[in-house]
Amino acid sequence: MPGPPDPDDPLAAVSALQGVPSALAAARDGIDARLRDRGRRLTGPEVTTESLFRGAVASASLAGSECSADDLRAGRVDAPAAGCLRVSAELMGLLPTWRVSPLQVLARMHTLAVDAGPEYARGRPADPAGAVRLVDLADTLSRPTTAPALAVAAVVHAELATAQPFGTADGVVARAAERLVLADRGVDPASVTVPEAGHAADPAEYRRSLAAYAGGGTSGVAAWLMYAAAAFTRGAQAAPLPD
After folding, report:
1. What is the pLDDT of residues 168-181, one digit of tens each?
2. For residue 96, what are the contacts with CB-CB under 8 A and spacing of at least 6?
3. Among residues 109, 111, 81, 89, which one has the least CA distance to residue 97?
């Protein structure tokens, strides 16, 4: 993970970088207000299903799909869109396993996201370096932390998207993992916000911010986290809730 590590709580260390705490707090307030005002925890499974669908559309667009939401609803899909739909269909069912074995879930999500290449390579890291990054990430997630849940979600996303441990569909896996963290850590238990749409709203800024994170140093990490705070806010506004 870029930035000066805190051996006891590395997530808390990066979430305390200058400007980040206030950005994350404002984003969490906005998410809470959006969900509370529209009946937080009272939404039915149909709302979660629609949110997951919208997330698949947005994630697919970031993965290079040319399909529209109407295309996906009609079953007209290209390879990136098909993979994102498969991930979204299983995602919430993976939540209990995520809590005890994130590596198993990451492997499953990659298997779902990829429909080309040799079967033995699906769900497996591309090389030993990728395997190490996945183990390190799982180890970080297993440690107690005082970091806000939004920071954890953003770091998980950036680590997977920039390390590219699988070598294919890493961005799809990263965005799905981010959504799982938001559900698991109480930000959005019903998973009705659409964080993927928050990122897809400005693809160029999304990629610039990930590049800043990958570049290392505290400024790059802080830039990503502050960008992510804004993306989470946009994702809350994209939730399929009545206005």
Report:
1. 999 999 999 999 99
2. none
3. 109
**Residue % of the chain over a pLDDT of 70:** 92
Within 8 A by CB and 6+ apart from 166, the residues are 110, 114, 123, 124, 125, 126, 130, 173
* Amino acid letter for position 184: D
Q: How far apart are alpha carbons 239 and 228 in whole angstroms?
A: 17
Tell me the residue range of the domain where 62 lies.
Answer: 10-237
pLDDT tens-digit series, residues 228-239: 999 999 999 999
Mean pLDDT of 90-113: 96
Tell me, yes or no, whether 119 lies in a domain. yes
CA distances 129 to 62, 79, 91, 104, 163, Å, are: 25, 27, 26, 18, 9
DSSP letter for 231, please: H
Number of domains observed in the structure of the chain: 1
User: So what's the pLDDT on residue 158?
Assistant: 98
Q: Is 4 within a domain?
A: no
